[in-house]
Amino acid sequence: MIGGLVTFSEPSVRLAAAPLPDDTVQNPAPPSTDTAAGGSPASSTPARPASSRAGGNSGLVDEGWAIEQASRTGIPLRALLGYAGAELALGAESPDCRMGWSTLAALGHLESGHGTHAGSALGLDGVARPSILGPELDGGDYDRIDDTDSGGIDGTSTTDRAVGPMQFIPSTWATWGSDGNDDGVADPQQIDDAALAAGRYLCEYGDLSDAANWHRAVFAYNHVESYVNAVADVARDYAARTSG
User: Fold this and answer.
1) Number of domains in the chain
2) Is 122 helix (H, G, I), strand (E, B) or coil?
3) Domain containing 167: what range?
4) Cα–Cα distances in Å, from 24 out to 52, 78, 114?
5) What is the Cα–Cα distance from 170 to 180, expressed in whole angstroms?
6) Which intervals carry biased composition (Low complexity) (predicted)?
7) Is residue 1 one of the residues assigned to a domain?
8) Which residues contact 155 (CB under 8 A, 6 or more apart)?
9) What pTM value is reported for the model?
């Protein structure tokens, strides 16, 4: 219900001042869980280990900002870089959309636990391993969707199922699939690609700083009102936990 949707201010992303070196990122420890509900978690900055973060959208994001926000929110750093990088890319590509990274992060949390569903994890390259595959959409617990990709990205040639950290149906990925890490491949299992595709999909609904447009966009992503409310709650919590 649009009238009952609590609005929130999307936190801003800090743009990287220069191309980042290869020894920058790793998932930080989760925030402290002993804070009161709605309080701010501990924000100590994790040690900086070696990595090989690729270019593309994640390289647009300021390293120090990303580490700090990952620590504050508990979002794995590689996932947060994907969401924040998508916001920056979309800010240049579709400035009137006003896509916010905390909305993408809320979707990623609900769809796959930021790429951790069923024991998966995002590698430093942003790819979920093992691949994240939803249940077959065979008309049992979920509506039936007949196969559209011959099993090419979802591993089944009888029906479809959602794939990757943002849970795209193959037919939707065929329309919105994006290359967010500039490797020449649109891979729904790769967080930069998936976050950019999700953002582009949502931006079709107009200015997302408008509550009605935001509601329509998230409802289109998953046609359940309780899902829209859950996304709003998570996005608002992430926004409250971040710093400028």
Assistant:
1) 1
2) strand
3) 15-32+43-241
4) 8, 11, 20
5) 18
6) 32-55
7) no
8) 131, 133, 161
9) 0.82
